[in-house]
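Working notes for the structural subgroup meeting. M.R. asked for a predicted model of this chain before we commit to crystallization trials. I am recording the input and output together here so anyone reviewing the notebook later can reproduce the run.

Input as submitted:
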Amino acid sequence: MADSAPMIAAEERQETPEVMERKANTLVNYINKSKHIIVFTGAGISTSTGIPDFRGPEGVWTLRKQGRLRTSKAASTLQAIPSPTHMALVELQDRDILKYVVSQNCDGLHRRSGILPDRISELHGNSNLEHCKDCGKQYIRDFRAVSTFEKGIHDHRTGRKCALCGGILLDTIINFGEFLSAEPLQLARDHAKKADLCIALGSSLTIPPASEIPETVGKRKAANLVICNLQETPLDKSSSLRIFGKTDDLMERVMEKLSLPIPKFMVRRLLVIRIGSEAGRYSVKIEGVDVDGTPVTFLQSVKLENNRRVVRAEPFTINLRDELEIGTRLKLVLEFMGHYGEPNLELSHLYDDAGAALALYLLEYDPLLGQWTTTRQDPDKVPAASVQEVDSTAKGKEKAIPTEESGMPDNVKPSPATNATSDHEA
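Returned structure, recorded in C-alpha coordinate form:
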Protein backbone atom coordinates (compact mmCIF):
# COMPACT_ATOMS: atom_id res chain seq x y z
CA MET A 1 0.00 0.00 0.00
CA ALA A 2 1.09 3.62 -0.42
CA ASP A 3 1.84 4.07 3.30
CA SER A 4 4.62 1.47 3.02
CA ALA A 5 6.49 3.58 0.48
CA PRO A 6 8.97 6.26 1.63
CA MET A 7 8.36 9.88 0.71
CA ILE A 8 11.65 9.84 -1.19
CA ALA A 9 12.21 6.72 -3.27
CA ALA A 10 15.33 4.69 -2.55
CA GLU A 11 18.26 5.50 -4.80
CA GLU A 12 18.40 3.54 -8.04
CA ARG A 13 21.79 2.21 -9.05
CA GLN A 14 23.10 0.59 -12.20
CA GLU A 15 26.27 -1.40 -12.68
CA THR A 16 28.71 -0.29 -15.34
CA PRO A 17 28.55 -2.39 -18.54
CA GLU A 18 31.83 -4.06 -17.56
CA VAL A 19 30.55 -5.07 -14.13
CA MET A 20 27.20 -6.19 -15.56
CA GLU A 21 29.08 -8.37 -18.06
CA ARG A 22 31.15 -9.97 -15.33
CA LYS A 23 28.16 -10.63 -13.08
CA ALA A 24 26.19 -12.06 -15.99
CA ASN A 25 29.02 -14.57 -16.48
CA THR A 26 28.80 -15.54 -12.82
CA LEU A 27 25.04 -16.06 -13.10
CA VAL A 28 25.51 -18.22 -16.19
CA ASN A 29 27.96 -20.38 -14.23
CA TYR A 30 25.35 -20.76 -11.49
CA ILE A 31 22.73 -21.73 -14.07
CA ASN A 32 24.96 -24.33 -15.68
CA LYS A 33 25.68 -25.96 -12.32
CA SER A 34 22.15 -25.87 -10.93
CA LYS A 35 19.52 -28.62 -11.15
CA HIS A 36 16.43 -26.88 -9.78
CA ILE A 37 16.20 -23.22 -10.76
CA ILE A 38 13.34 -20.96 -9.75
CA VAL A 39 12.74 -17.32 -10.58
CA PHE A 40 11.01 -14.78 -8.33
CA THR A 41 9.62 -11.72 -10.13
CA GLY A 42 8.26 -8.30 -9.23
CA ALA A 43 7.15 -5.12 -10.95
CA GLY A 44 10.61 -4.34 -12.31
CA ILE A 45 10.34 -6.93 -15.07
CA SER A 46 7.33 -5.11 -16.54
CA THR A 47 8.48 -1.48 -16.42
CA SER A 48 10.04 -1.71 -19.89
CA THR A 49 6.57 -2.62 -21.23
CA GLY A 50 5.23 0.73 -20.02
CA ILE A 51 3.63 -0.56 -16.80
CA PRO A 52 4.95 1.45 -13.82
CA ASP A 53 6.38 -0.09 -10.67
CA PHE A 54 5.40 0.91 -7.14
CA ARG A 55 8.43 2.10 -5.18
CA GLY A 56 10.63 3.60 -7.90
CA PRO A 57 11.08 7.37 -8.33
CA GLU A 58 7.98 7.43 -10.57
CA GLY A 59 6.30 4.46 -8.91
CA VAL A 60 2.56 4.35 -8.18
CA TRP A 61 3.01 4.52 -4.41
CA THR A 62 5.86 7.02 -4.54
CA LEU A 63 3.79 9.48 -6.56
CA ARG A 64 0.81 9.01 -4.29
CA LYS A 65 2.91 9.58 -1.16
CA GLN A 66 4.29 12.78 -2.70
CA GLY A 67 0.89 13.96 -3.91
CA ARG A 68 2.08 14.03 -7.53
CA LEU A 69 0.30 12.94 -10.69
CA ARG A 70 1.92 10.79 -13.36
CA THR A 71 3.17 12.91 -16.26
CA SER A 72 3.19 10.03 -18.76
CA LYS A 73 0.39 7.61 -19.49
CA ALA A 74 0.89 4.09 -18.20
CA ALA A 75 0.49 1.21 -20.65
CA SER A 76 -2.59 -0.97 -20.43
CA THR A 77 -1.78 -4.38 -19.02
CA LEU A 78 -3.98 -5.84 -21.76
CA GLN A 79 -1.97 -4.19 -24.52
CA ALA A 80 1.55 -4.38 -23.12
CA ILE A 81 3.95 -6.61 -25.03
CA PRO A 82 5.91 -8.88 -22.65
CA SER A 83 9.46 -7.71 -22.02
CA PRO A 84 12.68 -9.49 -23.07
CA THR A 85 12.85 -10.75 -19.48
CA HIS A 86 9.39 -12.33 -19.76
CA MET A 87 10.30 -14.01 -23.04
CA ALA A 88 13.71 -15.18 -21.82
CA LEU A 89 11.99 -16.98 -18.95
CA VAL A 90 9.67 -18.71 -21.43
CA GLU A 91 12.65 -20.03 -23.40
CA LEU A 92 14.34 -21.27 -20.21
CA GLN A 93 11.08 -22.95 -19.18
CA ASP A 94 10.59 -24.61 -22.56
CA ARG A 95 14.10 -26.06 -22.34
CA ASP A 96 13.39 -27.29 -18.80
CA ILE A 97 16.21 -25.16 -17.41
CA LEU A 98 13.77 -23.06 -15.39
CA LYS A 99 11.61 -25.26 -13.19
CA TYR A 100 9.23 -22.73 -11.63
CA VAL A 101 8.25 -19.07 -11.51
CA VAL A 102 6.97 -17.33 -8.40
CA SER A 103 5.52 -13.91 -9.14
CA GLN A 104 4.11 -11.00 -7.18
CA ASN A 105 2.75 -9.47 -10.40
CA CYS A 106 -0.88 -9.74 -11.38
CA ASP A 107 -0.60 -8.00 -14.77
CA GLY A 108 -1.08 -11.34 -16.58
CA LEU A 109 2.07 -10.97 -18.70
CA HIS A 110 3.74 -14.17 -17.49
CA ARG A 111 0.84 -16.34 -18.60
CA ARG A 112 0.38 -14.34 -21.81
CA SER A 113 4.07 -14.68 -22.68
CA GLY A 114 3.93 -18.48 -22.49
CA ILE A 115 4.66 -19.52 -18.91
CA LEU A 116 2.64 -22.68 -18.34
CA PRO A 117 -0.07 -22.68 -15.65
CA ASP A 118 1.59 -25.55 -13.77
CA ARG A 119 4.95 -23.74 -13.78
CA ILE A 120 3.92 -20.59 -11.93
CA SER A 121 2.52 -19.36 -8.63
CA GLU A 122 0.94 -15.93 -9.06
CA LEU A 123 0.89 -15.21 -5.35
CA HIS A 124 -1.03 -11.96 -5.58
CA GLY A 125 -3.43 -13.10 -8.29
CA ASN A 126 -3.95 -12.41 -11.97
CA SER A 127 -6.19 -9.59 -13.16
CA ASN A 128 -7.31 -11.77 -16.11
CA LEU A 129 -8.22 -14.81 -14.01
CA GLU A 130 -11.40 -15.48 -12.04
CA HIS A 131 -12.61 -18.59 -10.26
CA CYS A 132 -15.84 -20.11 -9.03
CA LYS A 133 -16.54 -19.76 -5.32
CA ASP A 134 -18.33 -23.12 -5.25
CA CYS A 135 -16.55 -25.56 -7.59
CA GLY A 136 -13.18 -23.81 -8.03
CA LYS A 137 -13.34 -23.77 -11.84
CA GLN A 138 -11.00 -21.13 -13.26
CA TYR A 139 -11.64 -18.84 -16.22
CA ILE A 140 -8.97 -16.92 -18.13
CA ARG A 141 -10.30 -13.75 -19.73
CA ASP A 142 -8.93 -11.38 -22.34
CA PHE A 143 -10.23 -8.52 -20.23
CA ARG A 144 -9.81 -7.36 -16.64
CA ALA A 145 -11.77 -9.91 -14.62
CA VAL A 146 -11.95 -7.81 -11.46
CA SER A 147 -14.50 -7.07 -8.78
CA THR A 148 -17.43 -4.73 -9.26
CA PHE A 149 -16.96 -3.40 -5.67
CA GLU A 150 -20.62 -3.53 -4.78
CA LYS A 151 -19.81 -4.08 -1.10
CA GLY A 152 -16.32 -2.65 -0.77
CA ILE A 153 -12.73 -3.50 -1.56
CA HIS A 154 -12.94 -7.01 -0.11
CA ASP A 155 -15.94 -7.98 -2.22
CA HIS A 156 -14.33 -10.05 -4.95
CA ARG A 157 -17.47 -10.84 -6.93
CA THR A 158 -17.04 -10.06 -10.63
CA GLY A 159 -20.75 -10.16 -11.43
CA ARG A 160 -20.47 -13.29 -13.59
CA LYS A 161 -21.56 -16.87 -12.95
CA CYS A 162 -19.77 -20.17 -13.43
CA ALA A 163 -20.73 -21.89 -16.68
CA LEU A 164 -20.23 -25.27 -15.02
CA CYS A 165 -22.22 -25.04 -11.79
CA GLY A 166 -23.76 -21.57 -11.80
CA GLY A 167 -21.72 -20.48 -8.79
CA ILE A 168 -20.53 -16.92 -8.13
CA LEU A 169 -17.26 -15.99 -9.85
CA LEU A 170 -14.59 -14.17 -7.83
CA ASP A 171 -11.48 -12.37 -8.99
CA THR A 172 -8.11 -13.71 -7.85
CA ILE A 173 -6.50 -10.44 -6.72
CA ILE A 174 -5.14 -10.44 -3.17
CA ASN A 175 -5.43 -7.10 -1.37
CA PHE A 176 -3.49 -6.00 1.68
CA GLY A 177 -4.95 -7.52 4.81
CA GLU A 178 -6.18 -10.57 2.90
CA PHE A 179 -4.78 -14.08 2.97
CA LEU A 180 -2.88 -15.63 0.09
CA SER A 181 -4.45 -18.68 -1.52
CA ALA A 182 -3.02 -21.80 0.03
CA GLU A 183 -2.19 -23.85 -3.07
CA PRO A 184 0.01 -21.39 -5.03
CA LEU A 185 1.83 -20.36 -1.84
CA GLN A 186 2.49 -23.97 -0.86
CA LEU A 187 3.76 -24.80 -4.36
CA ALA A 188 6.08 -21.79 -4.19
CA ARG A 189 7.40 -22.93 -0.82
CA ASP A 190 7.89 -26.49 -2.05
CA HIS A 191 9.95 -25.31 -5.01
CA ALA A 192 11.95 -22.93 -2.79
CA LYS A 193 12.93 -25.89 -0.61
CA LYS A 194 14.13 -27.85 -3.65
CA ALA A 195 15.82 -24.93 -5.43
CA ASP A 196 19.58 -24.70 -5.62
CA LEU A 197 19.29 -21.37 -7.45
CA CYS A 198 16.73 -18.60 -7.07
CA ILE A 199 16.96 -15.58 -9.38
CA ALA A 200 14.99 -12.62 -7.98
CA LEU A 201 14.20 -10.15 -10.74
CA GLY A 202 12.74 -6.65 -10.36
CA SER A 203 11.37 -7.03 -6.83
CA SER A 204 11.92 -4.92 -3.71
CA LEU A 205 11.57 -8.17 -1.71
CA THR A 206 9.76 -6.34 1.09
CA ILE A 207 6.29 -7.93 1.14
CA PRO A 208 5.80 -11.13 3.17
CA PRO A 209 4.94 -13.92 2.82
CA ALA A 210 6.02 -13.65 -0.84
CA SER A 211 9.50 -12.44 0.14
CA GLU A 212 9.95 -15.60 2.20
CA ILE A 213 10.41 -17.58 -1.03
CA PRO A 214 13.79 -16.09 -2.09
CA GLU A 215 14.74 -15.77 1.58
CA THR A 216 14.34 -19.53 2.01
CA VAL A 217 16.85 -20.16 -0.78
CA GLY A 218 19.24 -17.45 0.42
CA LYS A 219 19.49 -19.04 3.88
CA ARG A 220 20.73 -22.37 2.58
CA LYS A 221 24.48 -22.85 2.20
CA ALA A 222 24.05 -25.29 -0.68
CA ALA A 223 21.96 -22.84 -2.71
CA ASN A 224 22.47 -19.48 -4.39
CA LEU A 225 20.23 -16.42 -4.33
CA VAL A 226 20.81 -13.91 -7.12
CA ILE A 227 19.09 -10.52 -6.92
CA CYS A 228 18.76 -8.09 -9.81
CA ASN A 229 17.00 -4.84 -8.97
CA LEU A 230 17.71 -1.11 -9.25
CA GLN A 231 17.25 -0.48 -5.52
CA GLU A 232 18.62 -2.15 -2.40
CA THR A 233 16.52 -4.91 -0.84
CA PRO A 234 16.34 -6.40 2.68
CA LEU A 235 17.75 -9.67 1.34
CA ASP A 236 20.89 -8.25 -0.28
CA LYS A 237 23.14 -9.67 2.46
CA SER A 238 21.65 -13.13 1.92
CA SER A 239 22.46 -13.13 -1.78
CA SER A 240 25.37 -14.90 -3.43
CA LEU A 241 25.30 -12.39 -6.28
CA ARG A 242 23.86 -8.88 -6.15
CA ILE A 243 23.28 -7.07 -9.44
CA PHE A 244 22.12 -3.47 -9.63
CA GLY A 245 20.49 -2.96 -12.98
CA LYS A 246 17.50 -3.49 -15.23
CA THR A 247 16.39 -7.06 -15.63
CA ASP A 248 16.28 -6.82 -19.44
CA ASP A 249 19.94 -5.76 -19.52
CA LEU A 250 20.88 -8.77 -17.41
CA MET A 251 18.72 -11.40 -19.13
CA GLU A 252 19.73 -10.35 -22.64
CA ARG A 253 23.37 -10.89 -21.66
CA VAL A 254 22.62 -14.18 -19.89
CA MET A 255 20.71 -15.63 -22.85
CA GLU A 256 23.48 -14.65 -25.25
CA LYS A 257 26.09 -16.35 -23.06
CA LEU A 258 23.90 -19.46 -22.85
CA SER A 259 23.63 -19.38 -26.67
CA LEU A 260 19.85 -19.33 -26.36
CA PRO A 261 17.45 -17.09 -28.29
CA ILE A 262 14.92 -14.78 -26.69
CA PRO A 263 11.75 -15.80 -28.52
CA LYS A 264 9.53 -13.29 -30.25
CA PHE A 265 6.22 -12.60 -28.53
CA MET A 266 3.22 -14.01 -30.36
CA VAL A 267 -0.41 -13.85 -29.31
CA ARG A 268 -1.27 -17.56 -29.12
CA ARG A 269 -4.81 -18.86 -28.84
CA LEU A 270 -6.11 -22.42 -28.68
CA LEU A 271 -9.52 -22.91 -30.26
CA VAL A 272 -11.67 -26.01 -29.87
CA ILE A 273 -14.47 -26.74 -32.35
CA ARG A 274 -17.08 -29.33 -31.35
CA ILE A 275 -19.71 -30.73 -33.68
CA GLY A 276 -22.73 -32.30 -32.02
CA SER A 277 -26.05 -33.68 -33.15
CA GLU A 278 -29.33 -34.41 -31.44
CA ALA A 279 -32.44 -35.72 -33.12
CA GLY A 280 -30.84 -35.08 -36.50
CA ARG A 281 -30.06 -31.42 -35.76
CA TYR A 282 -26.41 -30.39 -35.81
CA SER A 283 -24.66 -27.70 -33.80
CA VAL A 284 -21.19 -26.17 -33.86
CA LYS A 285 -19.64 -25.00 -30.58
CA ILE A 286 -16.53 -22.81 -30.57
CA GLU A 287 -14.50 -22.45 -27.39
CA GLY A 288 -11.17 -20.90 -26.38
CA VAL A 289 -9.00 -22.95 -23.99
CA ASP A 290 -5.64 -22.76 -22.27
CA VAL A 291 -2.97 -25.46 -22.58
CA ASP A 292 -4.45 -27.19 -19.51
CA GLY A 293 -8.01 -26.95 -20.75
CA THR A 294 -8.97 -23.93 -18.65
CA PRO A 295 -11.59 -21.92 -20.56
CA VAL A 296 -10.19 -18.74 -22.08
CA THR A 297 -12.32 -15.83 -23.18
CA PHE A 298 -10.72 -14.09 -26.15
CA LEU A 299 -13.54 -13.97 -28.71
CA GLN A 300 -16.18 -11.26 -29.05
CA SER A 301 -18.28 -12.94 -31.71
CA VAL A 302 -18.44 -15.86 -34.12
CA LYS A 303 -20.25 -16.00 -37.46
CA LEU A 304 -20.75 -18.86 -39.86
CA GLU A 305 -20.73 -18.07 -43.56
CA ASN A 306 -24.22 -18.09 -45.12
CA ASN A 307 -25.75 -17.86 -41.65
CA ARG A 308 -27.22 -14.47 -40.82
CA ARG A 309 -26.92 -14.87 -37.07
CA VAL A 310 -23.82 -13.53 -35.31
CA VAL A 311 -23.20 -15.25 -31.96
CA ARG A 312 -21.96 -12.68 -29.44
CA ALA A 313 -22.06 -14.54 -26.13
CA GLU A 314 -20.39 -17.62 -24.69
CA PRO A 315 -20.85 -20.43 -25.30
CA PHE A 316 -20.49 -19.65 -29.00
CA THR A 317 -22.94 -22.21 -30.36
CA ILE A 318 -24.35 -22.18 -33.88
CA ASN A 319 -27.32 -24.40 -34.69
CA LEU A 320 -27.48 -25.76 -38.24
CA ARG A 321 -30.64 -26.31 -40.22
CA ASP A 322 -29.28 -28.96 -42.55
CA GLU A 323 -27.57 -32.27 -41.96
CA LEU A 324 -23.77 -31.98 -41.78
CA GLU A 325 -21.94 -34.43 -44.02
CA ILE A 326 -18.32 -35.55 -43.81
CA GLY A 327 -16.30 -33.37 -46.18
CA THR A 328 -18.32 -30.22 -45.50
CA ARG A 329 -16.20 -27.11 -45.06
CA LEU A 330 -17.40 -24.62 -42.45
CA LYS A 331 -16.17 -21.05 -42.88
CA LEU A 332 -16.12 -19.20 -39.58
CA VAL A 333 -15.41 -15.50 -38.98
CA LEU A 334 -13.82 -14.95 -35.56
CA GLU A 335 -13.86 -11.52 -33.92
CA PHE A 336 -11.33 -10.98 -31.13
CA MET A 337 -11.06 -8.53 -28.22
CA GLY A 338 -8.43 -6.73 -30.29
CA HIS A 339 -6.07 -5.54 -27.55
CA TYR A 340 -3.14 -6.09 -29.90
CA GLY A 341 -5.06 -4.87 -32.93
CA GLU A 342 -6.02 -8.37 -34.04
CA PRO A 343 -8.23 -8.25 -37.14
CA ASN A 344 -11.04 -10.72 -37.70
CA LEU A 345 -9.85 -14.17 -38.69
CA GLU A 346 -11.58 -16.24 -41.36
CA LEU A 347 -11.12 -19.87 -40.36
CA SER A 348 -12.03 -22.65 -42.79
CA HIS A 349 -12.78 -25.85 -40.86
CA LEU A 350 -13.08 -29.16 -42.71
CA TYR A 351 -15.53 -31.57 -41.10
CA ASP A 352 -13.60 -34.75 -41.83
CA ASP A 353 -13.00 -38.25 -40.52
CA ALA A 354 -9.81 -37.24 -38.73
CA GLY A 355 -11.62 -35.17 -36.14
CA ALA A 356 -15.29 -35.14 -37.01
CA ALA A 357 -16.66 -34.32 -33.58
CA LEU A 358 -13.70 -32.48 -32.08
CA ALA A 359 -10.98 -30.29 -33.59
CA LEU A 360 -8.20 -28.16 -32.13
CA TYR A 361 -6.60 -25.13 -33.78
CA LEU A 362 -3.55 -23.11 -32.77
CA LEU A 363 -4.06 -19.46 -33.73
CA GLU A 364 -0.93 -17.28 -33.72
CA TYR A 365 -0.93 -13.54 -34.24
CA ASP A 366 2.19 -11.45 -34.79
CA PRO A 367 1.42 -7.99 -33.34
CA LEU A 368 4.35 -6.43 -35.20
CA LEU A 369 3.43 -7.79 -38.63
CA GLY A 370 -0.32 -7.78 -38.02
CA GLN A 371 -0.71 -11.32 -39.40
CA TRP A 372 -2.56 -14.45 -38.30
CA THR A 373 -1.28 -18.02 -38.77
CA THR A 374 -3.55 -20.99 -38.13
CA THR A 375 -2.53 -24.61 -37.62
CA ARG A 376 -4.87 -27.54 -37.12
CA GLN A 377 -3.60 -29.75 -34.32
CA ASP A 378 -3.95 -33.44 -33.60
CA PRO A 379 -7.41 -33.88 -31.98
CA ASP A 380 -5.80 -36.16 -29.39
CA LYS A 381 -4.00 -33.06 -28.07
CA VAL A 382 -7.23 -31.31 -27.10
CA PRO A 383 -6.74 -30.39 -23.41
CA ALA A 384 -8.55 -32.91 -21.23
CA ALA A 385 -10.23 -30.33 -19.02
CA SER A 386 -11.99 -28.90 -22.06
CA VAL A 387 -13.53 -32.27 -22.84
CA GLN A 388 -14.37 -33.63 -19.41
CA GLU A 389 -16.54 -32.05 -16.75
CA VAL A 390 -14.71 -30.79 -13.69
CA ASP A 391 -15.38 -32.69 -10.48
CA SER A 392 -16.56 -29.85 -8.30
CA THR A 393 -16.37 -31.89 -5.12
CA ALA A 394 -12.73 -32.68 -5.75
CA LYS A 395 -11.64 -29.08 -6.25
CA GLY A 396 -13.63 -27.54 -3.43
CA LYS A 397 -13.01 -24.09 -2.04
CA GLU A 398 -9.47 -22.78 -1.80
CA LYS A 399 -8.08 -22.40 1.68
CA ALA A 400 -6.19 -19.30 2.74
CA ILE A 401 -2.89 -18.87 4.52
CA PRO A 402 -2.97 -16.33 7.37
CA THR A 403 -0.11 -13.84 7.33
CA GLU A 404 0.87 -10.67 9.12
CA GLU A 405 0.85 -8.72 5.88
CA SER A 406 -0.09 -10.39 2.68
CA GLY A 407 -1.23 -9.79 -0.83
CA MET A 408 -1.57 -6.96 -3.25
CA PRO A 409 -2.04 -3.29 -2.45
CA ASP A 410 -5.62 -2.11 -2.38
CA ASN A 411 -4.96 0.18 -5.32
CA VAL A 412 -4.51 -2.71 -7.70
CA LYS A 413 -8.18 -2.73 -8.61
CA PRO A 414 -9.76 0.65 -9.38
CA SER A 415 -12.20 1.86 -6.76
CA PRO A 416 -14.06 5.16 -6.40
CA ALA A 417 -11.30 6.41 -4.11
CA THR A 418 -8.35 5.44 -6.29
CA ASN A 419 -7.19 5.45 -9.86
CA ALA A 420 -4.94 2.44 -10.13
CA THR A 421 -2.51 2.36 -13.03
CA SER A 422 -0.76 -0.90 -12.33
CA ASP A 423 -1.64 -4.51 -11.68
CA HIS A 424 1.37 -5.91 -9.91
CA GLU A 425 3.49 -5.64 -6.81
CA ALA A 426 6.97 -4.17 -6.72
